């Protein structure tokens, strides 16, 4: 954990992790006995669920509970042993699907993608590739109101400690090139931009895309800021999110590989950070429980420890070590109980630290007063709630240790669901 | 998911820079010692008594209020102790116990707790309490009379009284280096200039106070004192005198910078400080009060919510 | 007293609200939100300038002349009340935009001690017509300034964790007291 | 539920006790309560006006046209205020000097006009008198209490009326009055704290 | 139309009745009010200064015109002689004008006493000038030609602590009174003879 520097006069600087020359190759972790997939869909009525306990699944098969466009891909073949629903962050409902994995020798592979991979298109990308590592999102291309004008490939990690995407730029630039070319082909967009940290600018040159660099201080690799600072200078007015499709470097590699080989790559590269701060890249099948990774590194968990999926600033914490690696899990961080700073419910003391660090120029000190009082609409009208890019910096520096970021997310979520409710009533 | 391991589940971010209210209070208390210890050496055990009583009574008032309002005990954050210390720094060493206790009551209870505790006070609690006790028991805080029984190796007249009554000439009898070294009478923690400056610089460098406020406050004093001095050099003392006498330094580094009652944006901080400095000199030169710092700080606290509305455009809200 | 001193005295030193205690009901009633505070401030400036001068004229040229000084109170309140009515009707018809802004505050002004108080003070202090005009305007400005500064603080206090029995009027009064204390800063400046 | 005359009277002493429950008429409350005597005097003057205007407004309520009712109330109130002003000058001159501008200001006191409009114009004479007296006496007691507290702490004495007074300094000679209480800011803060106590008790 | 007429009639009748009643009350109280003003504003001060007079100074008063204004003088009789007058001077204090009643023995032109009549000073500070004899007692025995001032300004009067401004104003008031006394002495002597008889 990075502490306040002795001289607090200057803004705190949080540096992104830099993948170094001597970085070890990812440690490969074999599929364990079970994998688990968390699907962002709830099963209201088990009767018409697409899958049932006991169903066999093949590696690469689409796993979804309903007919909506969202799905995951099973990384292994096996048999569904359990389906359950649970409530996650902000009251969202999830379904977890547990699959008992077949032995290595008896793996079977779903062939439906192989049949379409000869004719790459946006439609079959959306139908088969959204569950790839890096979770590529193709839905934006189908929104006719906001035509996509540029593809941006993030060869940077947008949270601290993770080196996952940099790994692909550094070691797999050819795969990125393949992926970018394919994406350009199926979308008909010629404008592809690759964002990389400064130290990888050289390497990135051979990708064929336009290369842009971001500096090494958090949160400059945040997509919103990339849009503001790097892309806006390109094209003056386009400050809104519309018109740009973001893909992670890992996703681009996976897309390229999928079309080239007809096989869906379902191994996720994850930056694993142990309690004592050691970092190691691992390659695991999507759905592997975190416990398997812990076992590999002989890491033991005790009561009160914290398991974080994603980076230290924006990740989520898991309630159990059985939590699986998901397509967008770039990092897994284990914190010992005594590394955790307790949050408090002290009021804001107006120290102003949050205002100084906020990359979106939000008056967080005022905002938090409205949020704590539950006045979300006023917070949005008068204090720019929706300008927040969710970097978490304000909570990181808060002297009162207020969970500012959590309040912000809760407020945004509440307002958005109120708006959605209104619209569906209208 | 059926194991019994209880992991900590919480919200992002999972890192924190380690800052806390109590470490801030601790550091400010430390920095204030640089001025308070020399003050205690100068005024002897009575000063130590006033300081300890002020801190202790401030903490006890806060505890009492915590109990009465059935809220969590908040003395641990050190803010009550800090308020007590700030209040004591302004007092003469001869202040009777009941005036100290009444003062800390107004600071902690009326100044802060009834607004909802830390961070909610619209005015600096210590300054508020000081003006209230000064209004009520003026003669206790008339430094000339209060410190009559001490004998010093320097001119034991409160410098601001001289300049108020007799203009700039007697003010010139004070050598600036003497003033810096605390060779003047005044509040326990308000006279040792070097200590206050060192403490202030320490706090600015460590980021515990917003340097913009302190620096612009001093700049405001300097500029307006110079203006008056040029206008009428016989009547109005120069900037050096105003910078090093009365509550100027404690005001600039320890009082005006109180978090809750001061702005956080850059331009507002400058306006806030400059206005405070200018008002201080105006009150000293043409108002009734002997020292202007306290009232100037109350006025800038008052305009703080309005000036702090000057702020940069949020992301995506610009033109 | 020169006009500059008069102005400073009216706005700061003898602030009608904080030093003379006049106009407290609208002060507490319209300071919860900045918008209403600004509206009330404008309305008071508008009415007070008219009321201050008209009552001065009536006092000097009617009441004094005919020995009816004892009718001062009744004459002044009638003038103020009808003035407010008249202004309201006039604005409604002629300047609807301004009426929309000030309209709801106008009836409150009839029972605003500050307005009546300034009219009486103008007479008690034996001001000339011009002094009465200047004083009325700047007393009103002082009222508006205090009101707006108060609204700034109150907007923040409304969001703070004020203990239950102190909420609203109680804490507002205490804050007003602190503002009045802060205004002691200007004492003796004129 | 219709109230009895007694209830109309007693409501002014607690349920609608001004200025604590009905937060109106604050200017005299803050301005004159530097002593108990001033507070009581102001309260009695206001009670007289309240009584008179409630009585007359209620009596004339069938004659007073709806449209010009406010003008009529104001004339009635102003007449009573002037009478009080003149009577005080004639028979209680020292008090008149202390209350100063606040006596003519009874005419704009929100309580008086408020009672005329909200109560007397709609109710029988007997009820209106009970209402006026109740509110007036409640107001007097509040002002007296506030005056007593401020005077005791801020001046070390309490003057009930004329020479009837209590001097704290005889019992505690070393007490130095906390004169903040009798100054302007002390008025607001003292009233605010009393309101807090009343709220806390009321709950 | 009926409404309109009713409105006008009611308002007119109400106003006239109110006016009439007030005129009556005003008339009935006028003399009492004047007496009260003298008794309570000036009375205590006069009584304090001219304590022991064998005649009532408030009854035995006369007025002398000074330019546009008139100044009242109150006469005290001691040892059978009407030899002392009390009259008022004004100075500008912290909160406004301060009136000071000054008593002068016309035989030796010395001050027999002074007392504050009206002021708007702060309770506990400037208001002490009236309540506390410490300040005004210092004037007793001064000659009308003596310069008067607070010690801070080089004079002989010790100011009330914390209220120099008030003290200065009281001195100014005394000086003003002494000046007008010197100016009007001939008329005063003339008028006082009448009272003496
Ligand atoms: C004037 C002054 C200078 C100080 N300088 C240092 C310093 O240079 N380095 C240091 O570690 N502590 C220094 N300290 C002590 C710190 O204030 C404090 O004890 C230490 O930083 C622990 O505080 P923390 O928990 O907030 O980091 C200094 C204290 C004072 C009063
Ligand atoms: C909270 C509190 C407030 C007090 N306020 C005063 C005061 O305002 N003035 C005063 O003279 N004594 C005040 N006292 C005085 C003491 O009760 C006691 O009378 C005084 O200290 C006697 O000291 P002395 O006679 O040695 O000066 C206060 C006591 C307490 C507990
Ligand atoms: C609230 C307040 C009320 C004051 N009232 C008076 C007053 O009534 N008379 C006065 O001379 N000075 C008054 N002053 C002015 C100060 O006490 C001023 O410092 C004093 O007059 C300067 O003289 P000193 O040298 O006697 O202290 C008041 C000041 C304040 C803050
Ligand atoms: C230089 C400085 C002076 C401060 N003075 C005060 C003060 O007088 N009263 C107070 O309540 N807090 C004061 N604070 C505390 C601060 O604003 C904040 O509330 C604390 O950091 C919380 O302990 C001060 C802080 C700083 C940096
Ligand atoms: S982290 Fe806590 S608050 Fe958030 S969803 Fe999970 S249980 Fe609820
Ligand atoms: S999370 Fe906090 S610091 Fe980051 S943009 Fe939002 S408000 Fe600003
Ligand atoms: S960092 Fe926390 S305590 Fe400081 S101003 Fe921001 S929200 Fe308030
Ligand atoms: S973020 Fe704050 S308000 Fe929200 S659940 Fe946590 S403690 Fe409660
Ligand atoms: S009593 Fe209501 S404004 Fe003064």
Describe this structure in words.
Chain A has helices at 112-116, 122-128, 164-171, 173-187, 201-204, 223-234, 249-261, 290-296, 353-357, 364-372, 376-383, 393-397, 404-425, and strands at 27-28, 34-39, 56-57, 62-63, 72-73, 78-87, 93-101, 150-154, 192-197, 210-214, 244-248, 267-273, 279-285, 306-309, 316-318, 331-335. Chain A is an alpha/beta fold. Chain A folds into 4 domains: 32-106; 122-261, no CATH class; 267-339, Ubiquitin-like (UB roll) (Roll); 348-425, no CATH class. In chain A, helix 3 (164-171) crosses helix 4 and helix 4 crosses helix 7. The longest helix of chain A is centred in the C-terminal third of the chain and has 22 residues, at 404-425. By secondary structure, chain B is mainly alpha-helical. Chain B folds into 2 domains: 21-140, no CATH class; 161-184 and 200-307, no CATH class. In chain B, helix 14 (266-286) runs antiparallel to helix 15. The relative contact order of chain B is 0.11. By secondary structure, chain C is mainly alpha-helical. The radius of gyration of chain C is 17 Å and the shape is globular. Helix content of chain D is 64%, strand content 4%. Chain D contains 9 helices and 2 strands, in the order H-H-H-H-H-H-H-E-E-H-H. A two-stranded antiparallel ribbon of chain D has the order 1-2. In chain D, strand 1 (157-161) and strand 2 form a beta hairpin. The mean pLDDT of chain D is 87. The chains are: A alpha/beta (426), B mainly alpha (319), C mainly alpha (190), D mainly alpha (203), E alpha+beta (197). Chains A and B meet through strand 14, strand 15, helix 9, helix 12 and helix 13 of A and helix 10 of B. The structure holds flavin mononucleotide (FMN) (3 copies), riboflavin, iron/sulfur cluster (4 copies) and FE2/S2 (inorganic) cluster (FES). The site of one iron/sulfur cluster has 2 residues of chain A, from loops.
